[in-house]
Amino acid sequence: MSKTSEVPRLDKESLRQLLSRRFEQGFSRLSDIPAPSRLKDAVKAAERIAKAVRSGERIALVGDYDVDGVTSTALTTLFFRQIPYPLEVVIPNRFTDGYGVSPSVLQRIDADLVITVDNGINAVEAAEVCKARGIDLIITDHHTPGKLLPDAYAIVNPKQEACDYPTSEICGAQVAWLLMAEVKRALGSGIDMGQFLELLALAIVADVMPLTGINRAIVQAGLKQMARSPRPASVIIREFLNKSALASEDIGFQIAPRLNSAGRLEDASIALKFLTAESEGEAYAQFQLLDQLNQLRKATEAQVSEEAAAMVDPADRVIVVASEGWHEGVVGIVASRLVQQFDRPAIVLSVENGRAKGSARSIGNVNIFELISRQKGHLEKFGGHKMAAGLSLPTDALDAFRRALNADAACLDPEDFLPVEAILGELESAAIDFELLHILDTFEPYGEGNPRPRFLARDAEVVAIKTFGSDNSHSRVQLRFEAHERRTHELLAFRQVLEMPPHRHMTCSYTLNRNEFNGRVSIQMMLERIY
Protein backbone atom coordinates (compact mmCIF):
# COMPACT_ATOMS: atom_id res chain seq x y z
CA MET A 1 0.00 0.00 0.00
CA SER A 2 1.15 3.55 -0.62
CA LYS A 3 2.13 5.19 2.68
CA THR A 4 -0.38 7.99 3.15
CA SER A 5 2.47 10.41 4.01
CA GLU A 6 3.94 9.84 0.52
CA VAL A 7 0.73 10.42 -1.44
CA PRO A 8 1.10 13.40 -3.84
CA ARG A 9 -1.37 16.29 -4.16
CA LEU A 10 -3.12 16.14 -7.53
CA ASP A 11 -4.81 18.64 -9.79
CA LYS A 12 -6.73 17.70 -12.95
CA GLU A 13 -3.76 17.98 -15.32
CA SER A 14 -1.41 15.88 -13.16
CA LEU A 15 -4.16 13.24 -12.85
CA ARG A 16 -4.57 13.17 -16.65
CA GLN A 17 -0.82 12.69 -17.09
CA LEU A 18 -0.69 9.87 -14.51
CA LEU A 19 -3.51 7.97 -16.23
CA SER A 20 -2.02 8.57 -19.70
CA ARG A 21 1.15 6.75 -18.62
CA ARG A 22 -0.85 3.52 -18.31
CA PHE A 23 -1.37 3.68 -22.09
CA GLU A 24 1.99 4.96 -23.32
CA GLN A 25 1.67 2.74 -26.40
CA GLY A 26 -1.66 4.38 -27.20
CA PHE A 27 -5.15 2.94 -27.29
CA SER A 28 -5.89 -0.16 -29.40
CA ARG A 29 -8.77 -0.27 -31.86
CA LEU A 30 -10.89 -3.22 -32.96
CA SER A 31 -8.94 -3.22 -36.22
CA ASP A 32 -5.82 -4.09 -34.18
CA ILE A 33 -7.21 -7.52 -33.19
CA PRO A 34 -4.75 -10.07 -34.66
CA ALA A 35 -6.12 -12.46 -37.29
CA PRO A 36 -7.71 -15.65 -35.85
CA SER A 37 -5.53 -17.73 -38.19
CA ARG A 38 -2.50 -16.77 -36.06
CA LEU A 39 -3.84 -18.97 -33.23
CA LYS A 40 -2.15 -22.36 -33.39
CA ASP A 41 -4.52 -25.05 -34.75
CA ALA A 42 -7.31 -22.49 -35.44
CA VAL A 43 -7.30 -23.14 -39.19
CA LYS A 44 -7.10 -26.91 -38.67
CA ALA A 45 -9.96 -26.83 -36.15
CA ALA A 46 -12.11 -24.57 -38.34
CA GLU A 47 -11.66 -26.77 -41.40
CA ARG A 48 -12.67 -29.84 -39.33
CA ILE A 49 -15.80 -28.07 -38.02
CA ALA A 50 -16.72 -26.91 -41.54
CA LYS A 51 -16.28 -30.49 -42.82
CA ALA A 52 -18.57 -31.77 -40.04
CA VAL A 53 -21.23 -29.19 -40.98
CA ARG A 54 -21.04 -30.01 -44.69
CA SER A 55 -21.22 -33.78 -44.15
CA GLY A 56 -23.95 -33.71 -41.48
CA GLU A 57 -21.88 -35.06 -38.59
CA ARG A 58 -23.05 -34.87 -34.96
CA ILE A 59 -21.34 -32.00 -33.12
CA ALA A 60 -21.34 -31.52 -29.33
CA LEU A 61 -20.20 -28.47 -27.39
CA VAL A 62 -18.91 -28.69 -23.79
CA GLY A 63 -18.75 -25.41 -21.83
CA ASP A 64 -18.13 -24.36 -18.24
CA TYR A 65 -20.30 -23.00 -15.43
CA ASP A 66 -18.66 -19.63 -14.73
CA VAL A 67 -19.55 -16.43 -16.65
CA ASP A 68 -16.74 -16.83 -19.18
CA GLY A 69 -17.67 -20.47 -19.77
CA VAL A 70 -21.40 -19.77 -20.09
CA THR A 71 -20.76 -16.78 -22.38
CA SER A 72 -18.39 -18.86 -24.54
CA THR A 73 -21.12 -21.50 -24.79
CA ALA A 74 -23.81 -18.91 -25.59
CA LEU A 75 -21.71 -17.23 -28.29
CA THR A 76 -20.92 -20.55 -30.01
CA THR A 77 -24.56 -21.69 -29.70
CA LEU A 78 -25.80 -18.44 -31.29
CA PHE A 79 -23.23 -18.76 -34.09
CA PHE A 80 -24.43 -22.30 -34.92
CA ARG A 81 -28.05 -21.12 -34.83
CA GLN A 82 -27.20 -18.67 -37.59
CA ILE A 83 -25.43 -21.18 -39.86
CA PRO A 84 -27.97 -22.86 -39.10
CA TYR A 85 -26.76 -26.23 -37.78
CA PRO A 86 -27.86 -28.43 -34.82
CA LEU A 87 -25.51 -28.51 -31.85
CA GLU A 88 -25.69 -30.66 -28.72
CA VAL A 89 -24.78 -28.33 -25.83
CA VAL A 90 -23.55 -29.54 -22.41
CA ILE A 91 -22.47 -27.36 -19.48
CA PRO A 92 -21.16 -29.60 -16.68
CA ASN A 93 -22.85 -29.29 -13.30
CA ARG A 94 -20.43 -28.17 -10.56
CA PHE A 95 -21.84 -30.67 -8.05
CA THR A 96 -22.46 -33.81 -10.14
CA ASP A 97 -19.91 -33.50 -12.96
CA GLY A 98 -17.08 -31.37 -11.63
CA TYR A 99 -15.12 -29.13 -13.98
CA GLY A 100 -14.83 -29.34 -17.77
CA VAL A 101 -14.95 -32.14 -20.32
CA SER A 102 -14.60 -35.04 -17.88
CA PRO A 103 -15.08 -38.73 -18.80
CA SER A 104 -18.42 -38.62 -16.89
CA VAL A 105 -19.66 -35.78 -19.12
CA LEU A 106 -18.58 -37.69 -22.25
CA GLN A 107 -20.79 -40.62 -21.19
CA ARG A 108 -23.82 -38.40 -21.92
CA ILE A 109 -22.58 -37.32 -25.36
CA ASP A 110 -23.20 -39.13 -28.64
CA ALA A 111 -21.20 -37.23 -31.26
CA ASP A 112 -18.60 -37.45 -34.03
CA LEU A 113 -16.96 -34.16 -33.03
CA VAL A 114 -16.66 -32.58 -29.57
CA ILE A 115 -15.66 -28.91 -29.13
CA THR A 116 -14.78 -27.45 -25.72
CA VAL A 117 -14.97 -23.78 -24.79
CA ASP A 118 -13.15 -22.26 -21.79
CA ASN A 119 -11.97 -25.69 -20.63
CA GLY A 120 -10.11 -28.82 -21.68
CA ILE A 121 -6.44 -27.82 -21.72
CA ASN A 122 -5.69 -30.35 -18.96
CA ALA A 123 -8.35 -32.94 -19.98
CA VAL A 124 -5.83 -35.69 -20.73
CA GLU A 125 -8.13 -38.53 -19.60
CA ALA A 126 -11.14 -37.18 -21.53
CA ALA A 127 -9.01 -36.94 -24.70
CA GLU A 128 -8.14 -40.64 -24.32
CA VAL A 129 -11.84 -41.51 -23.99
CA CYS A 130 -12.59 -39.55 -27.18
CA LYS A 131 -9.75 -41.30 -29.00
CA ALA A 132 -11.03 -44.74 -27.95
CA ARG A 133 -14.57 -43.87 -29.12
CA GLY A 134 -13.42 -42.44 -32.47
CA ILE A 135 -14.51 -38.89 -31.57
CA ASP A 136 -12.45 -35.94 -32.80
CA LEU A 137 -11.84 -33.55 -29.91
CA ILE A 138 -11.23 -29.82 -30.49
CA ILE A 139 -10.15 -27.98 -27.35
CA THR A 140 -10.50 -24.20 -27.07
CA ASP A 141 -9.24 -22.74 -23.80
CA HIS A 142 -7.21 -19.89 -22.32
CA HIS A 143 -5.99 -21.45 -19.08
CA THR A 144 -2.32 -22.29 -18.56
CA PRO A 145 -1.44 -25.75 -19.96
CA GLY A 146 0.18 -28.41 -17.79
CA LYS A 147 3.33 -30.28 -18.79
CA LEU A 148 1.28 -32.90 -20.65
CA LEU A 149 -1.17 -31.72 -23.32
CA PRO A 150 -4.27 -33.80 -24.14
CA ASP A 151 -4.00 -35.92 -27.30
CA ALA A 152 -6.72 -33.97 -29.13
CA TYR A 153 -7.43 -33.39 -32.84
CA ALA A 154 -6.71 -29.67 -32.34
CA ILE A 155 -5.93 -27.38 -29.41
CA VAL A 156 -6.66 -23.67 -29.74
CA ASN A 157 -5.13 -21.85 -26.76
CA PRO A 158 -2.91 -18.75 -26.96
CA LYS A 159 -0.97 -19.90 -23.87
CA GLN A 160 0.35 -23.12 -25.43
CA GLU A 161 4.07 -22.99 -26.18
CA ALA A 162 3.97 -23.29 -29.96
CA CYS A 163 1.35 -20.53 -30.38
CA ASP A 164 2.59 -17.15 -31.59
CA TYR A 165 -0.69 -15.25 -31.22
CA PRO A 166 0.44 -11.76 -30.09
CA THR A 167 -2.03 -11.49 -27.18
CA SER A 168 -2.18 -14.37 -24.70
CA GLU A 169 -4.20 -12.60 -21.96
CA ILE A 170 -7.61 -13.20 -23.50
CA CYS A 171 -10.58 -15.06 -22.04
CA GLY A 172 -12.27 -18.27 -23.15
CA ALA A 173 -15.08 -16.44 -24.95
CA GLN A 174 -12.52 -14.52 -27.04
CA VAL A 175 -10.81 -17.76 -28.08
CA ALA A 176 -14.20 -19.27 -29.04
CA TRP A 177 -15.10 -16.08 -30.96
CA LEU A 178 -11.82 -16.10 -32.89
CA LEU A 179 -12.32 -19.77 -33.81
CA MET A 180 -15.90 -19.13 -34.95
CA ALA A 181 -14.58 -16.28 -37.13
CA GLU A 182 -12.26 -18.82 -38.74
CA VAL A 183 -15.19 -21.28 -39.13
CA LYS A 184 -17.15 -18.48 -40.83
CA ARG A 185 -14.29 -18.08 -43.32
CA ALA A 186 -14.07 -21.85 -43.91
CA LEU A 187 -17.82 -22.06 -44.61
CA GLY A 188 -17.91 -18.88 -46.71
CA SER A 189 -20.65 -17.58 -44.38
CA GLY A 190 -21.82 -13.97 -44.08
CA ILE A 191 -22.38 -14.05 -40.31
CA ASP A 192 -21.45 -10.70 -38.69
CA MET A 193 -18.93 -11.49 -35.93
CA GLY A 194 -19.26 -7.93 -34.56
CA GLN A 195 -22.70 -8.79 -33.15
CA PHE A 196 -21.01 -10.76 -30.36
CA LEU A 197 -18.95 -7.88 -28.91
CA GLU A 198 -21.46 -7.33 -26.08
CA LEU A 199 -21.05 -10.96 -25.00
CA LEU A 200 -17.26 -10.65 -25.16
CA ALA A 201 -17.39 -7.53 -22.96
CA LEU A 202 -19.39 -9.52 -20.39
CA ALA A 203 -16.86 -12.38 -20.36
CA ILE A 204 -13.71 -10.20 -20.35
CA VAL A 205 -14.87 -8.16 -17.36
CA ALA A 206 -16.30 -11.13 -15.42
CA ASP A 207 -13.14 -13.21 -15.97
CA VAL A 208 -10.96 -10.32 -14.75
CA MET A 209 -8.89 -10.00 -17.93
CA PRO A 210 -6.54 -6.99 -18.16
CA LEU A 211 -8.47 -4.03 -19.60
CA THR A 212 -5.64 -2.88 -21.83
CA GLY A 213 -4.81 -3.41 -25.52
CA ILE A 214 -7.47 -5.18 -27.57
CA ASN A 215 -9.38 -6.18 -24.42
CA ARG A 216 -10.01 -2.49 -23.69
CA ALA A 217 -11.16 -1.86 -27.27
CA ILE A 218 -13.55 -4.85 -27.18
CA VAL A 219 -15.04 -3.94 -23.79
CA GLN A 220 -15.52 -0.30 -24.84
CA ALA A 221 -17.28 -1.33 -28.06
CA GLY A 222 -19.19 -4.16 -26.34
CA LEU A 223 -20.61 -1.91 -23.60
CA LYS A 224 -21.75 0.62 -26.22
CA GLN A 225 -23.36 -2.20 -28.20
CA MET A 226 -25.08 -3.56 -25.09
CA ALA A 227 -26.55 -0.08 -24.41
CA ARG A 228 -28.51 -0.17 -27.70
CA SER A 229 -28.64 -3.88 -28.65
CA PRO A 230 -31.98 -5.55 -29.46
CA ARG A 231 -30.65 -8.84 -28.04
CA PRO A 232 -33.27 -9.86 -25.43
CA ALA A 233 -30.66 -10.45 -22.72
CA SER A 234 -29.19 -6.97 -23.26
CA VAL A 235 -32.63 -5.36 -23.18
CA ILE A 236 -33.29 -6.96 -19.78
CA ILE A 237 -29.83 -5.95 -18.49
CA ARG A 238 -30.51 -2.33 -19.48
CA GLU A 239 -33.94 -2.38 -17.83
CA PHE A 240 -32.45 -3.86 -14.65
CA LEU A 241 -29.59 -1.33 -14.44
CA ASN A 242 -31.81 1.60 -15.51
CA LYS A 243 -28.83 3.38 -17.07
CA SER A 244 -28.23 4.95 -20.47
CA ALA A 245 -24.46 4.31 -20.41
CA LEU A 246 -23.00 1.07 -19.05
CA ALA A 247 -19.65 0.75 -17.22
CA SER A 248 -17.45 -2.27 -16.60
CA GLU A 249 -18.35 -2.05 -12.89
CA ASP A 250 -22.03 -2.58 -13.80
CA ILE A 251 -21.01 -5.91 -15.31
CA GLY A 252 -18.56 -6.83 -12.56
CA PHE A 253 -20.76 -5.99 -9.57
CA GLN A 254 -24.34 -6.36 -10.85
CA ILE A 255 -24.61 -8.72 -13.83
CA ALA A 256 -21.72 -11.18 -13.41
CA PRO A 257 -22.72 -12.22 -9.85
CA ARG A 258 -26.24 -13.00 -11.07
CA LEU A 259 -24.98 -15.06 -14.01
CA ASN A 260 -22.49 -16.82 -11.72
CA SER A 261 -25.13 -17.65 -9.12
CA ALA A 262 -26.73 -20.23 -11.43
CA GLY A 263 -23.59 -22.38 -11.62
CA ARG A 264 -22.73 -21.76 -7.97
CA LEU A 265 -26.05 -22.79 -6.48
CA GLU A 266 -28.00 -24.77 -9.07
CA ASP A 267 -27.17 -25.23 -12.76
CA ALA A 268 -25.52 -22.89 -15.28
CA SER A 269 -28.10 -23.78 -17.94
CA ILE A 270 -30.30 -20.99 -16.45
CA ALA A 271 -27.64 -18.38 -17.33
CA LEU A 272 -27.20 -19.95 -20.77
CA LYS A 273 -30.95 -19.77 -21.47
CA PHE A 274 -30.89 -16.10 -20.43
CA LEU A 275 -28.03 -15.18 -22.77
CA THR A 276 -29.47 -17.12 -25.72
CA ALA A 277 -33.14 -16.19 -25.17
CA GLU A 278 -35.02 -15.39 -28.39
CA SER A 279 -37.67 -13.19 -26.76
CA GLU A 280 -37.67 -10.57 -24.03
CA GLY A 281 -40.29 -12.57 -22.14
CA GLU A 282 -38.03 -15.64 -22.04
CA ALA A 283 -35.00 -13.53 -21.07
CA TYR A 284 -36.97 -11.80 -18.31
CA ALA A 285 -38.16 -15.14 -16.86
CA GLN A 286 -34.60 -16.50 -16.75
CA PHE A 287 -33.23 -13.25 -15.27
CA GLN A 288 -35.83 -13.42 -12.50
CA LEU A 289 -34.55 -16.91 -11.66
CA LEU A 290 -30.96 -15.63 -11.70
CA ASP A 291 -31.91 -12.74 -9.42
CA GLN A 292 -33.61 -15.11 -6.97
CA LEU A 293 -30.56 -17.40 -6.98
CA ASN A 294 -28.34 -14.38 -6.38
CA GLN A 295 -30.44 -13.38 -3.36
CA LEU A 296 -30.12 -16.94 -2.06
CA ARG A 297 -26.37 -16.83 -2.80
CA LYS A 298 -26.01 -13.61 -0.77
CA ALA A 299 -27.98 -15.01 2.17
CA THR A 300 -26.02 -18.28 2.10
CA GLU A 301 -22.75 -16.38 1.79
CA ALA A 302 -23.62 -14.08 4.72
CA GLN A 303 -24.43 -17.04 6.97
CA VAL A 304 -21.27 -18.98 6.04
CA SER A 305 -19.15 -15.79 6.37
CA GLU A 306 -20.44 -15.22 9.90
CA GLU A 307 -19.79 -18.85 10.92
CA ALA A 308 -16.34 -18.88 9.26
CA ALA A 309 -15.27 -15.58 10.88
CA ALA A 310 -16.14 -16.98 14.32
CA MET A 311 -13.80 -19.95 13.69
CA VAL A 312 -10.72 -17.89 12.74
CA ASP A 313 -7.67 -18.55 14.92
CA PRO A 314 -6.07 -15.11 15.56
CA ALA A 315 -2.62 -16.74 15.77
CA ASP A 316 -2.73 -18.09 12.21
CA ARG A 317 -0.96 -16.16 9.42
CA VAL A 318 -3.17 -18.00 6.90
CA ILE A 319 -6.79 -18.64 7.84
CA VAL A 320 -7.96 -22.25 7.35
CA VAL A 321 -11.58 -22.95 8.29
CA ALA A 322 -13.80 -25.90 7.39
CA SER A 323 -17.28 -27.13 8.26
CA GLU A 324 -19.99 -29.52 7.19
CA GLY A 325 -23.06 -27.90 5.64
CA TRP A 326 -21.24 -24.99 4.03
CA HIS A 327 -22.38 -24.58 0.43
CA GLU A 328 -19.54 -25.45 -1.94
CA GLY A 329 -20.72 -22.74 -4.37
CA VAL A 330 -19.98 -19.83 -1.99
CA VAL A 331 -16.73 -20.83 -0.25
CA GLY A 332 -14.60 -18.82 -2.71
CA ILE A 333 -16.58 -15.64 -2.05
CA VAL A 334 -16.45 -16.27 1.70
CA ALA A 335 -12.66 -16.67 1.50
CA SER A 336 -12.50 -13.23 -0.19
CA ARG A 337 -14.66 -11.76 2.59
CA LEU A 338 -12.33 -13.18 5.28
CA VAL A 339 -9.30 -11.72 3.49
CA GLN A 340 -10.96 -8.27 3.56
CA GLN A 341 -11.99 -8.64 7.21
CA PHE A 342 -8.73 -10.02 8.64
CA ASP A 343 -6.08 -8.80 6.15
CA ARG A 344 -4.73 -12.36 5.79
CA PRO A 345 -4.95 -15.09 3.13
CA ALA A 346 -7.91 -17.38 3.73
CA ILE A 347 -8.86 -20.95 2.84
CA VAL A 348 -12.52 -21.94 3.27
CA LEU A 349 -13.51 -25.60 2.90
CA SER A 350 -16.83 -27.41 2.71
CA VAL A 351 -16.78 -30.84 4.37
CA GLU A 352 -18.78 -33.80 3.07
CA ASN A 353 -18.26 -37.56 3.45
CA GLY A 354 -14.81 -37.26 4.98
CA ARG A 355 -13.53 -34.88 2.31
CA ALA A 356 -12.86 -31.14 2.53
CA LYS A 357 -13.11 -29.16 -0.69
CA GLY A 358 -12.87 -25.43 -1.21
CA SER A 359 -11.09 -22.27 -2.24
CA ALA A 360 -8.18 -20.08 -1.22
CA ARG A 361 -7.79 -16.32 -1.68
CA SER A 362 -4.65 -14.30 -1.02
CA ILE A 363 -3.55 -10.77 -0.16
CA GLY A 364 -0.62 -8.49 -0.94
CA ASN A 365 2.36 -10.42 -2.27
CA VAL A 366 1.62 -13.78 -0.64
CA ASN A 367 1.68 -16.51 -3.32
CA ILE A 368 -1.07 -18.76 -1.98
CA PHE A 369 -0.66 -21.34 -4.77
CA GLU A 370 3.02 -21.79 -3.88
CA LEU A 371 2.22 -22.12 -0.17
CA ILE A 372 -0.46 -24.74 -0.85
CA SER A 373 1.70 -26.68 -3.33
CA ARG A 374 4.35 -27.19 -0.60
CA GLN A 375 1.69 -29.14 1.33
CA LYS A 376 0.76 -31.44 -1.56
CA GLY A 377 1.46 -34.49 0.61
CA HIS A 378 -1.72 -33.66 2.54
CA LEU A 379 -3.83 -32.92 -0.56
CA GLU A 380 -5.87 -34.93 -3.05
CA LYS A 381 -6.11 -32.17 -5.69
CA PHE A 382 -5.12 -28.53 -6.01
CA GLY A 383 -4.71 -25.90 -8.70
CA GLY A 384 -4.71 -22.16 -9.18
CA HIS A 385 -2.41 -19.16 -9.27
CA LYS A 386 -0.74 -16.57 -7.00
CA MET A 387 -3.93 -14.94 -5.69
CA ALA A 388 -6.48 -17.78 -5.80
CA ALA A 389 -6.56 -21.56 -5.68
CA GLY A 390 -8.86 -24.55 -5.33
CA LEU A 391 -8.04 -27.65 -3.27
CA SER A 392 -9.40 -30.82 -1.72
CA LEU A 393 -8.08 -33.08 1.05
CA PRO A 394 -9.25 -35.76 3.52
CA THR A 395 -10.77 -34.19 6.64
CA ASP A 396 -8.41 -36.13 8.90
CA ALA A 397 -5.50 -34.28 7.24
CA LEU A 398 -6.95 -30.81 7.94
CA ASP A 399 -5.14 -30.07 11.21
CA ALA A 400 -1.76 -31.20 9.89
CA PHE A 401 -2.32 -29.18 6.70
CA ARG A 402 -3.22 -26.01 8.67
CA ARG A 403 -0.20 -26.33 10.98
CA ALA A 404 2.28 -27.02 8.17
CA LEU A 405 0.85 -24.23 6.00
CA ASN A 406 1.14 -21.70 8.82
CA ALA A 407 4.66 -22.84 9.72
CA ASP A 408 5.66 -22.04 6.11
CA ALA A 409 3.75 -18.75 6.13
CA ALA A 410 5.56 -17.69 9.33
CA CYS A 411 8.80 -17.59 7.32
CA LEU A 412 7.42 -15.00 4.88
CA ASP A 413 8.24 -11.29 5.10
CA PRO A 414 5.46 -9.55 7.12
CA GLU A 415 5.43 -6.85 4.40
CA ASP A 416 4.09 -9.47 1.97
CA PHE A 417 0.83 -9.54 3.95
CA LEU A 418 0.08 -5.83 3.49
CA PRO A 419 -2.79 -5.13 1.07
CA VAL A 420 -1.47 -3.79 -2.21
CA GLU A 421 -3.46 -0.64 -2.80
CA ALA A 422 -2.00 2.01 -5.08
CA ILE A 423 -3.40 5.42 -4.14
CA LEU A 424 -2.85 7.86 -7.01
CA GLY A 425 -2.98 11.00 -4.93
CA GLU A 426 -4.89 13.47 -2.82
CA LEU A 427 -7.41 15.67 -4.63
CA GLU A 428 -8.34 19.16 -3.57
CA SER A 429 -12.02 19.46 -2.71
CA ALA A 430 -12.61 22.02 -5.47
CA ALA A 431 -11.19 19.63 -8.11
CA ILE A 432 -14.04 17.13 -7.62
CA ASP A 433 -16.44 18.22 -10.35
CA PHE A 434 -17.88 17.08 -13.68
CA GLU A 435 -14.75 18.13 -15.58
CA LEU A 436 -12.75 15.70 -13.39
CA LEU A 437 -15.38 13.02 -14.06
CA HIS A 438 -14.93 13.61 -17.82
CA ILE A 439 -11.15 13.06 -17.45
CA LEU A 440 -11.82 9.79 -15.61
CA ASP A 441 -14.36 8.74 -18.30
CA THR A 442 -11.66 9.14 -20.98
CA PHE A 443 -9.70 6.20 -19.55
CA GLU A 444 -12.68 3.82 -19.13
CA PRO A 445 -13.22 0.92 -18.92
CA TYR A 446 -11.54 0.35 -15.56
CA GLY A 447 -10.71 -3.04 -14.14
CA GLU A 448 -7.81 -5.48 -14.08
CA GLY A 449 -4.68 -3.88 -15.55
CA ASN A 450 -6.33 -0.44 -15.54
CA PRO A 451 -7.67 -0.01 -11.99
CA ARG A 452 -10.14 2.74 -11.22
CA PRO A 453 -8.09 5.54 -9.63
CA ARG A 454 -8.06 5.61 -5.83
CA PHE A 455 -7.69 8.91 -4.00
CA LEU A 456 -6.90 9.85 -0.41
CA ALA A 457 -9.05 12.00 1.88
CA ARG A 458 -6.65 13.00 4.67
CA ASP A 459 -7.98 13.84 8.12
CA ALA A 460 -11.34 14.94 6.70
CA GLU A 461 -14.06 16.15 9.08
CA VAL A 462 -16.96 13.71 9.47
CA VAL A 463 -20.02 15.96 9.53
CA ALA A 464 -22.63 13.18 9.74
CA ILE A 465 -23.11 9.42 9.28
CA LYS A 466 -26.41 7.78 8.37
CA THR A 467 -27.22 4.17 7.53
CA PHE A 468 -29.44 3.24 4.60
CA GLY A 469 -30.81 0.23 2.73
CA SER A 470 -33.66 -2.16 3.57
CA ASP A 471 -31.64 -3.60 6.48
CA ASN A 472 -29.60 -0.43 7.24
CA SER A 473 -26.40 -2.30 6.36
CA HIS A 474 -24.83 0.53 4.29
CA SER A 475 -23.50 3.92 5.41
CA ARG A 476 -23.68 7.44 3.95
CA VAL A 477 -20.97 9.78 5.29
CA GLN A 478 -20.85 13.58 4.87
CA LEU A 479 -17.17 14.61 4.66
CA ARG A 480 -15.62 18.09 4.74
CA PHE A 481 -12.10 18.05 3.28
CA GLU A 482 -10.93 21.45 4.55
CA ALA A 483 -11.94 23.15 7.82
CA HIS A 484 -12.44 26.54 6.15
CA GLU A 485 -14.85 25.37 3.42
CA ARG A 486 -18.62 24.96 3.52
CA ARG A 487 -18.82 22.27 0.82
CA THR A 488 -19.21 18.65 1.90
CA HIS A 489 -18.91 15.43 -0.10
CA GLU A 490 -21.07 12.30 0.17
CA LEU A 491 -19.09 9.11 0.75
CA LEU A 492 -20.90 5.77 0.40
CA ALA A 493 -19.79 2.63 2.25
CA PHE A 494 -21.61 -0.50 1.11
CA ARG A 495 -21.95 -3.49 3.48
CA GLN A 496 -20.41 -1.40 6.29
CA VAL A 497 -22.12 0.19 9.28
CA LEU A 498 -19.80 3.02 10.29
CA GLU A 499 -19.80 4.84 13.62
CA MET A 500 -18.73 8.42 14.30
CA PRO A 501 -14.93 8.37 14.95
CA PRO A 502 -13.84 9.73 18.38
CA HIS A 503 -12.32 12.95 16.99
CA ARG A 504 -14.91 13.31 14.21
CA HIS A 505 -12.16 13.02 11.57
CA MET A 506 -11.30 10.28 9.08
CA THR A 507 -8.46 9.39 6.71
CA CYS A 508 -9.64 7.06 3.97
CA SER A 509 -9.17 6.06 0.34
CA TYR A 510 -12.03 6.33 -2.15
CA THR A 511 -12.96 6.12 -5.82
CA LEU A 512 -15.18 8.45 -7.83
CA ASN A 513 -18.13 7.14 -9.86
CA ARG A 514 -20.79 8.65 -12.06
CA ASN A 515 -24.19 7.99 -10.51
CA GLU A 516 -27.35 8.08 -12.65
CA PHE A 517 -30.73 8.01 -10.94
CA ASN A 518 -34.07 9.11 -12.38
CA GLY A 519 -32.30 11.00 -15.16
CA ARG A 520 -30.07 12.97 -12.76
CA VAL A 521 -26.29 12.56 -12.84
CA SER A 522 -24.20 13.08 -9.71
CA ILE A 523 -20.64 12.39 -8.55
CA GLN A 524 -20.42 9.56 -6.05
CA MET A 525 -17.50 8.88 -3.69
CA MET A 526 -17.13 5.19 -2.85
CA LEU A 527 -15.21 4.20 0.30
CA GLU A 528 -12.31 1.79 -0.26
CA ARG A 529 -10.42 1.65 3.06
CA ILE A 530 -10.24 3.56 6.36
CA TYR A 531 -6.81 4.19 7.90
Give your account of this protein's structure.
- This protein has 531 residues and is of the alpha/beta class.
- The chain folds into three domains: 4-21 and 421-530, OB fold (Dihydrolipoamide Acetyltransferase, E2P) (Beta Barrel); 33-289, inorganic pyrophosphatase (n-terminal core) (Alpha-Beta Complex), CATH 3.90.1640; 318-411, Diaminopimelate Epimerase, Chain A, domain 1.
- The chain has 16 helices and 17 strands.
- A five-stranded parallel sheet has the order 3-2-4-5-6, with helices on both faces. Strands 7-8-9-11-10 form a five-stranded mixed sheet.
- The protein is globular, with a radius of gyration of 24 Å.
- It starts with 8 loop residues before the first strand and ends with a strand.
- The model has no long low-confidence stretch (mean pLDDT 93).
Instruction: Tell me how many strands there are.
Output: 17
Identify the CATH class of the largest domain.
Alpha Beta
Major β-sheet strand ordering: 3-2-4-5-6
Number of H- or I-type helical stretches: 16
Give the C-alpha Rg.
24 Å
Give the fraction of residues assigned to helices: 25-40%
> What is the fold-level CATH name, i.e. the topology of the largest domain?
inorganic pyrophosphatase (n-terminal core)
Mean pLDDT: 93
- Category from helices, strands and their pairing: alpha/beta
Main sheet attributes: strand count, strand direction, barrel closure: 5 strands, parallel
Globally, the shape reads: globular
Report the β-strand fraction as a percent range: 15-25%
Whole-number tally of structural domains: 3
| Low-confidence regions | none
Label the CATH architecture of the largest domain. Alpha-Beta Complex
Spatial separation of the terminal alpha carbons: 11 Å
